[in-house]
Every structure is written in structure tokens, then in C-alpha cells.
């Protein structure tokens, strides 16, 4: 418990429970799965201090993708985007924690990998906007919609960190 002890204390302070509970949707796209990046990506989010509350692997239907990307339906790349996103399995996750939406966007990097900083997922693992490895919700509202679209609430687990005192008898 010592290593992650400081986070236990954080979660136990009652002052800002609501923003500690902020959630975002992260999806590892088919190219990320193909390239065996799942472990490294999950590790980055765990290491940063976020909490995984939902996880599944699936091959997405056109229906769910057209809902997910409805704001982009007029873009020239829309149909190739849907083809890419349905071409193989996705790993879809919900992560929780303080400022998780904004912090995840920073960890993911710019949409266009040419502009993504080294140290971000896209800046480290991608060279092309049409194969950019990962999705992250871009606002708290957007995250709520996306989480509802991809997950049933029963599949999101509201678990607590183990109390150090109960494990160190
Ligand atoms: P983000 O995923 O960073 O939130 P957008 O919502 O603008 O970015 O775009 C959604 C996804 O559409 C991108 O992640 C990328 O996969 C794809 N995309 C965006 N722009 C282009 C483009 N110019 N050409 C091909 N694909 C694109």
C-alpha cells in the first residue's frame, strides 16, 4: 500500500468528491489493437493515477459508430473513418478521476500526429491522422454521451481503493 498510499488519502478527502468522479471514454482504435499497444496505453492511464471503471473489447457496428461520430458526418473522410473504426476490434474503456477529460486529451495528443507532442500517445505511436491509435472524449458533456452510448451503467464499476489499515494487520 505505501506506493499508492497518497491516492488512497486523496479519495478519502470529502471536499471534492464530484470532480474526482469525472469520467471519460477512451477507445483504442483497431490500429492500436493490431500493433499490440493495448498494454502500454492502459499502463499510461493507470500510472497517471486514473481509475479504470469499465473495459470491453468489441468490433463496432456502423450504427454505433455513426452515432459516435455524428458531428463528423459531413466531413470528406467520414466514410473511410467508419470503415477504419469497424475494421477490427476496439478496446473501449471508461476512466475516472480528477480532470480526467482534459488530462486524457493532453495524454492522447493532437488529432493530427504531425502536431502531437512526443510523450503523448499519438506523438509516440502514430504518424497519420487516419491511423491515430486512440480516441478520447473532448468534453465532460461529450464524455457522458459517449459513455452512455458504449456502456450500460451496470457494466461500470464504482470500486474503492483498499484501505491500507485493513491490509496491513
Ligand atoms: P479527435 O479524435 O482528436 O477528437 P476529431 O473529433 O476531429 O479528432 O476526429 C475524429 C477522428 O476522425 C480522428 O481521431 C481521426 O481518426 C479522424 N480524422 C480526423 N481528421 C481526419 C482527416 N483529415 N483525415 C482522416 N481522418 C481524420
Automatic annotation (TrEMBL):
Cofactors (names): Mg(2+)
Binding site for ATP: 29, 77, 105, 111, 122, 132
Residues of the active site: 135 (pros-phosphohistidine intermediate)
Domain Nucleoside diphosphate kinase-like: residue ranges: 21-158
Gene Ontology CC entries for this record: lamellipodium; mitochondrial intermembrane space; mitochondrial matrix; nucleus; ruffle
Matching InterPro entries: NDK-like_dom (IPR034907), NDK-like_dom_sf (IPR036850), Nucleoside_diP_kinase (IPR001564), Nucleoside_diP_kinase_AS (IPR023005)
Catalytic activity: a ribonucleoside 5'-diphosphate + ATP = a ribonucleoside 5'-triphosphate + ADP; a 2'-deoxyribonucleoside 5'-diphosphate + ATP = a 2'-deoxyribonucleoside 5'-triphosphate + ADP
Entry GO MF terms: ATP binding; metal ion binding; nucleoside diphosphate kinase activity
EC number(s) per entry: 2.7.4.6
Superkingdom as given in the UniProt entry: Eukaryota
Swiss-Prot/TrEMBL keywords: ATP-binding, Cell cycle, Cell projection, Cytoplasm, Kinase, Magnesium, Metal-binding, Nucleotide metabolism, Nucleotide-binding, Nucleus, Transferase
Compartments in which it is found: Cell projection, Lamellipodium; Cell projection, Ruffle; Cytoplasm; Mitochondrion intermembrane space
Main location (coarse class): other
Membrane topology: Peripheral membrane protein
GO biological process assignments: CTP biosynthetic process; GTP biosynthetic process; UTP biosynthetic process
Entry similarity comment: Belongs to the NDK family.
Record's function text: Major role in the synthesis of nucleoside triphosphates other than ATP.
Protein's name according to its UniProt entry: Nucleoside diphosphate kinase
Amino acid at each position: 500500500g505505501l506506493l499508492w498510499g497518497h491516492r488512497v488519502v486523496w479519495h478519502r478527502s470529502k471536499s471534492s468528491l464530484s470532480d474526482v468522479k469525472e469520467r471519460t471514454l477512451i477507445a483504442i482504435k483497431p490500429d492500436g489493437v493490431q500493433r499490440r499497444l493495448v498494454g502500454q496505453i492502459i499502463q499510461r492511464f493507470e500510472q497517471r493515477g486514473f481509475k479504470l471503471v469499465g473495459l470491453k473489447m468489441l468490433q463496432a457496428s456502423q450504427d454505433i459508430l455513426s452515432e459516435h461520430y455524428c458531428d463528423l458526418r459531413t466531413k470528406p473522410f467520414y466514410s473511410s473513418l467508419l470503415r477504419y473504426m469497424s475494421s477490427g476490434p476496439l478496446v473501449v474503456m471508461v476512466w475516472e478521476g480528477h480532470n480526467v477529460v482534459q488530462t486524457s486529451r493532453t495524454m492522447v495528443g493532437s488529432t493530427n500526429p504531425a502536431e502531437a507532442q512526443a510523450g503523448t500517445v499519438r506523438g509516440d505511436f502514430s504518424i497519420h491522422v487516419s491511423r491515430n491509435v486512440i480516441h478520447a472524449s473532448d468534453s465532460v458533456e461529450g464524455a457522458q454521451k459517449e459513455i452512455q452510448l458504449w456502456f450500460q451503467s451496470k457494466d461500470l464499476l464504482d470500486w474503492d481503493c483498499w484501505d491500507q489499515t485493513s491490509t496491513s494487520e
